[in-house]
Amino acid sequence: MKSIKKVVFPVAGLGTRFLPATKASPKEMLPIVDKPLIQYAAEEAMHSGINHLIFVIGRTKNAIINHFDSAPELENELFDKKKPALLKIIKQIIPKNVHCTFVRQENPLGLGHAISCAAEIIGSDDFAIILADDLIKAKTPTIKDMIKIRDKSCPNIIAIEEIEKTETDKYGIIEYSSKKKNLYKLSSIVEKPSPNKAKTNLAVVGRYLFSSDILDLITKTKPTVGGEIQITDAIGKMLSKSDIYGYKFKGQRFDCGSKLGYLKANVEYALDHKEVKKDFKKYLQNIKIN
Ligand code: UTP
């Protein structure tokens, strides 16, 4: 198997759960303490050996392009004002050996459709997908763990998590035919089943590894739930041809597309942030909650 060098970040969604903040600004630029969600996602990919970052953007997402571009005026200012630490932070966002490509999804027709917008750039390569609003706090990057497993087994792996049974109508839910440690061999997948119809409480979260075969299957997929072209339906089609494994990842996931998940992530990351953790902990310990 060839190594994974490309990742797709679908960031063209409307982020309606976060309005009005997301009316003109990308959800993926919301900061967790001091770093935007999309930068956490890019770092996860780069720390996993990936060097080509493909962003599928929409009309309100130009700030993402700017974030990963150089900023000569800012860099000169930080240099002149003798702020080398900040200058280093800015310059290191994208190292020289990493390549960024941006493609437009003209209309938000669904996650599956967004991924297919990157088809030409992916070509015939195996590739990763990371959803930046699913932030995972873990010792090793989740996508790195998945790449390691892929090398030993099959090219198609999706991250899964046990969720509350009442929440199944928010996720793709898998069924499995066999299981070895934290790897589940998929037998079926359903998008957002109601809790009384869901066969398990194993939900798909925003990390995937696929062979390029998935791209062709997406083009054959019709809009379903929410009128969107769902990646879940293309995964279902793929199951009749190839093995797909669900990987129950290690670490804590925050759904930063929801207000509550976003707030929890900020608290957890702030308690780990070397500049603020001491004072923030003190603040939390003294806070009065009625
Ligand atoms: P979500 O459904 O979580 O994001 O899609 P959303 O649509 O932006 O947010 P809500 O539900 O309205 O609040 C998961 C990921 O897929 C991307 C989103 O940007 C998000 O990262 N996506 C979704 C696209 O790129 N294009 C789409 O058409 C739909």
Task: Walk me through this protein's architecture.
By secondary structure, this protein is an alpha/beta fold. The protein has one domain: Spore Coat Polysaccharide Biosynthesis Protein SpsA, Chain A, CATH 3.90.550.10. The protein is built from 11 helices and 13 strands. It has helices spanning 37-46, 62-67, 72-80, 84-91, 111-116, 119-122, 142-152, 213-219, 231-238, 259-270, 277-286, and strands spanning 6-11, 31-32, 35-36, 52-57, 99-104, 127-130, 134-137, 157-162, 172-180, 183-191, 202-210, 245-248, 252-255. The strands form 3 sheets. The chain has a 9-stranded mixed β-sheet. Strands 2-3 form a two-stranded antiparallel ribbon. Strand 9 and strand 10 form a beta hairpin. The chain is globular, with a radius of gyration of 19 Å. The N and C termini lie far apart (56 Å). The model has no long low-confidence stretch (mean pLDDT 95). The site of uridine 5'-triphosphate has 21 residues, from strand 1 and helix 5.
Blueprint of the fold:
Blueprint: E1 6-11, E2 31-32, E3 35-36, H1 37-46, E4 52-57, H2 62-67, H3 72-80, H4 84-91, E5 99-104, H5 111-116, H6 119-122, E6 127-130, E7 134-137, H7 142-152, E8 157-162, E9 172-180, E10 183-191, E11 202-210, H8 213-219, H9 231-238, E12 245-248, E13 252-255, H10 259-270, H11 277-286
Parallel strand pairs: 1-4, 1-6, 4-5, 8-12
Antiparallel strand pairs: 2-3, 6-11, 7-13, 8-11, 9-10, 10-12
Helix pairs in contact: 3-4, 8-9
